[in-house]
From TrEMBL:
Protein name as annotated: Amino acid ABC transporter substrate-binding protein
SUPFAM superfamilies: Periplasmic binding protein-like II (SSF53850)
Pfam families: SBP_bac_3
Xref: PANTHER family: ABC TRANSPORTER SUBSTRATE-BINDING PROTEIN, MEMBRANE-BOUND LYTIC MUREIN TRANSGLYCOSYLASE F
Keyword tags: Signal
Domain Solute-binding protein family 3/N-terminal, first and last residues per copy: 24-246
Family note: Belongs to the bacterial solute-binding protein 3 family.
């Protein structure tokens, strides 16, 4: 595997301010397996491994800090963290966050239900009268957020949401396809819970960098090196390890700016 930094990445890195090169970045995120999570106190996951490799090639050291998602957002907005991993791009966030132009991955939000208590859900209107488990700070799509007729019930963790679904305390839950598949396997709920075909929304996730001097160059360098890394077998190996066949996981994705995480 070639680890030669693309020429444009080298030029951009040289242009970074001394402060941006010297400081150790503090990047925050919540547990969002298989993208980023903690295993025996150590960060793991698709986004973590990919971002870590890109930062390594740029010569930037990072401390990874886990906390609830709403607090992650507040820390970045208040300038108390240097960045956030797995962020959706929204116009209102660009006042305090820089988004590298290359995304980390594509997320598909779908619904999960208990096989013992199935529901026929083909559109959002079919959710009327039901209770859907959600996560604090997550806004899944404009249509989902604004739809009337069903109840949204947040849970403190994704695992708690699946537990409530298995116990019949909620009718459905919404989460990313890969997150749901990972947790079903981890919790041994594959035979009890299934995914529904309705796609709530699909959008790219990014590394978000807090706006500070020198961060524009770092964001551009990160994007260029990430784009180059996506063409290497090492990237496909990471994707295979966490979410399956690399062919189902795009190297580049289209922009969607309607939903938030």
């Amino acid at each position: 595997m070639s680890k030669i930094l693309p020429l444009i990445g080298i030029v951009l890195l040289i242009c970074l301010s001394p402060l941006a090169q010297a400081e150790r970045l503090r990047i925050v995120s919540d547990d969002w397996a298989p993208y980023i999570y903690q295993d025996n106190g150590q960060p793991q996951g698709l986004h973590f491994e990919v971002a870590s490799e890109v930062f390594k090639r740029l010569g930037v050291e990072v401390d990874w800090v886990f906390m609830p998602w709403k607090r992650c957002l507040a820390m970045v907005e208040q300038g108390q963290a240097d960045g956030i991993l797995g962020l959706f791009k929204l116009p209102e966030r660009e006042a305090f966050v820089l988004f590298p132009h290359e995304p980390l991955s594509q997320v598909d939000f779908i619904l999960f239900q208990s096989r013992a208590r199935p529901h026929s859900v083909r559109t959002l209107d079919d959710l009327n009268g039901l209770t859907v488990g959600t996560s604090p700070g997550y806004n899944y799509s404009a249509e989902f957020n604004e739809a009337q007729g069903f109840r949204r019930e947040p849970a403190p963790t994704h695992i708690a949401n699946f537990g409530k679904l298995a116990l019949g305390r909620i009718d459905l839950l919404v989460t990313d396809r890969h997150v749901g598949e990972y947790l079903l396997h981890k919790l041994h709920l594959d035979e009890q819970i299934e995914a529904l075909p309705l796609l709530i929304d699909s959008k790219p996730q990014y590394l978000g960098l807090t706006r500070k001097p020198g961060r524009e160059q770092l964001a551009q360098a990160f994007a260029e090196v990430l784009q180059h890394f996506k063409q290497e077998p090492a990237y496909e190996a990471i994707v295979q390890r966490y979410v399956g066949t690399p062919d189902t996981f795009p190297r580049t994705v289209e922009h969607h700016e309607r939903s938030t995480r």
